[in-house]
Amino acid sequence: MLTGFEKIVEERIRRAQQRGEFENLPGHGKPLPLDGDVRVPEELRLAYKILKNADCLPPELEVKKEIQQTEDLLVGMQDTAARYRVLKKLNFLIMKLNTLRSGAVLFDLPQKYMPDLVSRMSVKADSGKKTPSDPPVSIR
């Protein structure tokens, strides 16, 4: 479901397509030049490029990657003692990520939970009423 602003944007794009305003643009049919260093200060670009070429990730992304691997490991684990050790490791990694983080945790949540929320909300919208077994959904 689109918001009012998204509907306006989509309508304007559709009208521009019908008028042919997107035809014969510079670079038509070629890959877009994606310069990821536009927001990086000029004096740091060379250092960032060297780190990128060496496959070095920022510490926050390294920890996120390790958290994802640990969550995947937990899925198939049956042994209670081993599962407890892995959960302790996972909690430590999450705490470490929170100390490294520059922004609020709130902005990471939609990435992980958005599909579940959308499916629940669309089911409720289709039925027109809330079922008693559905837990309350709160987005802050």
Write structural notes for this entry:
With 140 residues, the chain is mostly helical. It has a domain of 48 residues. It is built from five helices and no strands. α3 runs antiparallel to α4. The chain is flat, with a radius of gyration of 22 Å.
- Euclidean distance between termini CA atoms: 19 Å
Structural class: mainly alpha
Q: What are the segments in which pLDDT stays under 50 over at least 5 consecutive residues? A: none
Strand content: under 5%
Number of strands: 0
What helical percentage do the residues reach? 55-70%
Q: What kind of sheet is the major sheet?
A: none
Rg, alpha carbons? 22 Å
Whole-number mean pLDDT:
78
Q: How many alpha or pi helices?
A: 5
**Element string (H = helix, E = strand):** HHHHH
- Global geometry: flat
Task: Please give a handful of descriptors for the protein shown.
140 residues, 5 helices
Ordered list of secondary-structure elements with their pairings:
Layout: H1 4-19, H2 45-53, H3 59-75, H4 80-100, H5 109-127
What would a concise description of this structure say?
The protein has 140 residues and is mainly alpha-helical.
